[in-house]
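Listing S7. Sequence submitted for prediction.
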Amino acid sequence: MSNILFLDKMQQVIKSYDSDEFIECVQTKEITTNASELMNDTLSASLPFEQTIKDASYIAVNDTKEQEFSLYRILTAKDEDNLLSFEAVNFAVDELDNFIIKDIRPKNRSFSYVINQILYDSGCDWVLGICEPIKTISSTFYYTSMREALKALQELGSEFAFSIEITGNKITKKIINCYNQIGKITNKRFEYGDEVLKIVHQQDRTNIVTALIGRGKGEEVGDGYGRRLEFSDVEWRKSNGKPLDKPKGQNWIEYPEMTKEYGIPSNGKMLPRKTVVVFDDVEDASELLQKTYDQLAYYCRPLVQFSTEILGSDSIGNTVSIHRGDRNYHYQTRVFKVVTDHVNGRVQASLGDNLSGNSINRQLSQVQSNISDLSSNKMTWYDSTEIGKYQDDIMRGAGANGGSIYMVNGIEAGVSQSRETYEQVFMDGPKIQDSQYFMIQNNAGISFKQCKKGQWTTIQDVHKGASTTAWTLDGTFNASFIAAGILAGVLIQGVVVKSVGSNSFFQSVLSNGAFSIEQYKETNNVDYTKPDWQKDIHGGKVGEFIGTYDGSTRKANGSALINYPGYILSINQDNGNGSSTPVFQVPSDSTFDNPKFKLFGKGTIYDDLEIKGNLTANSLKVNGRLETKELYVNGVKIDTNGGGNTGGGDTGWNGQYPPEVTSDRDKRYWQIWAMAIGAGFSKQAAAALLGNAQGESDANPTADEGGGRPGFGYGVWQWTDSSGASSGRVYMINLMTRAGVTDDPDTITAQFKLLIWHAPNGQWFATSSYPYSWTQFMTLTDINTATQAFVSNFERPLIGHPERSTWAQEWYNKFVNLEIPSGGGGYIAPISRPITVTSEFGWRTSPITGAQEFHNGIDLVNGNPNTPILASADGTVVSAADPGYFGWYGNWTVIKHADGMYTGYAHQSRVDVSVGQNVKQGQQIGLMGTTGPSTGEHCHFQFMDEFYPSSSAHFHNARDYIKF
């Protein structure tokens, strides 16, 4: 059953129907035979009269479990005999025809980049979803509609489909999906003559050929004949896996079975029907044979259009196999049309050759006809020579005062068989053999060539000679041709500006807004056509001055001097004779993980100085008052001044509460809950700690059972000296000293740290009733079992406490659905904006296998395939390029955060951090890549509440934390 919605002119849902409420609802999708046209997609529907939908403007259809709909604009609506009838067409093609691209001229850019650029320039609200093509393209879109732009991209080797997402009563997303080919290659095989495969139409056999002579690229000579590439020296054998046998020395390839059926009768046997096929762009004999075979496989059989009702409505574009046993051949073909009746569920698919239009003549017969026309109209050699002389007289100038100009056609240049002008050649002499310098103008731009006088004698020599492009057709100018003079202007914009002196040890480079000092690298000539041309300019980086920005607001927020490992960065004082001495210095052994600096000379600080690390001084003189919380001399504490320090490391507690937690009592329990979750406890085990804390002290870190007397308990979990020698607080503090806990002992933070140390270090004993280790207890998922295991194995009372299970359950119910607030200002996107989400979180069709799968993250790109990957929040790296983690992530980094969440970053081309390293929000941790199973460079980004999630329920949608 399908879900069908009616929408008004503002694309708001006004009524929803199930398909069984319709009298008729037929959806027709057809892939056009002409690549320059988008998919035909129409809808016919009728149902009993309903006033609310009479004036509807759109119909949306969904026959899948996905959230995506096909949307149709209503063209005609009829109200007859208490019946409403509608005819509609896919609205995407119609709507996109009204968005105009002003001026986009991509050069060697990916399909996804170009589509995102034209979407942005046109101002439409469509977004790119799937984008399969990975080849690069160069084109121009100048004041053209989005529809025409997509048609142009489709002609370059892609196919487009359109859908929308509806949330509530409105459209929330309009999606363009770009495929190499709509549909998938299936293992579905049909036998010719099967009852399920109906023959709709079979074309006549007048143009069938059973053997082809293939000819590749060649040269045209004066008498009209040429030597073209053939495949006589290539051998094929079916025993070696080839589709046909083709012996060496034979310049054609034949289908013997088809010759036997459709050949030419002669002396009691059948001769092959041969013709010639030419591939002007093929220069390899093996490739020529393969292309000739591909043509033969099509032209040797009748054209047949089939239909079947056993394929689904989602089979449009799928590739299936047709096997004809009686003729001993098979071929692959596509489902080019699907008609879905949503009322009765019937689906009729059309496949094979699309013969539904007017009578079709084979392309081969058209080519043969064109060749015949050309032969009948071909001029004689004398005629062509005389016209050539006349053309030379008109188009070439000669003489010492003006040089020469040569108009070169495609044949002379060897790039086509056309006599239309391809390029213009200027030379410094009256003839080629008298010239040394040449300037070429063609569709690539303007270039210069040079040879020794007399070295080149024909226009082919000039065309094939090495050249240097000076000015490309898109306006790019090669600065190497600026030989001398002054370049004056208000603004110079570029990628790299380099300044060096003779015999330099270093060079200064201004590149992409950053100023760098680099090791000197000599640069004489740069080939800007290479994608990595900047390698020819840059030397090894020594230091850099860059601008910085806020990753969340995407605005500049400052600047920074960058030092590179192995080099020094100094602020020096000149001594007047060409040398200097440092005042401030970052030494060469300073690293990212261990930054260092040195100060030289006397200095004065006019305000407070805060030191968060250790201070080592050979001599320290204090003229005024010295205040300290603790004072140690030779490792001995002289004065605690009323309490311990607040050190001790990260506890997973960030000091923040959910808005639902308001009372002081609830806040004490929430702190234990948050720290337990952050330490890796299951939520049930965390609740067990809370139930026992309520029974021991009501989670009060200063609860003193005996008022300071020996032998009584103290704190959240009532630490007690069983020997009776000391009070509970003193006993607890002594344990903290052994555990290395230096926080204020009268806090939940310190006592939770002590609990984590104390349990596995002598306090926890597994019993026969609850035979769990401390580590196993942390992962228990039954609240009663976890609570009573803590009572039995940690508290070990004389009398049991079943009531604590009830309390634990109550705290669990209270906290289980509350989000732990992020510490550090929340999360940020892991790549710089603008960001495109190429695959959402949740169930999807796998781009690798084509099967349904749960996508546990969100896929992100921003147009830069090597963009830096950034830490989404402060945290600690717990996995970095670990091959032992799930292999499908490729180069993979996992960061654990203070709120107990984990973020994962997959498919990186490079990982820049290591396990155990603490990272800051926005810090670079690697580079985007496509390692592991992947269809292209992107960042797979995910949130987890477990390091090794045990089910899909432990993954979280990144959109719940970050706005994309």
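Caption to Listing S7: primary sequence and predicted structure tokens for the chain studied. Confidence is low (pLDDT under 50) at residues 357-402, 631-652. The two ends are 34 Å apart (CA to CA).
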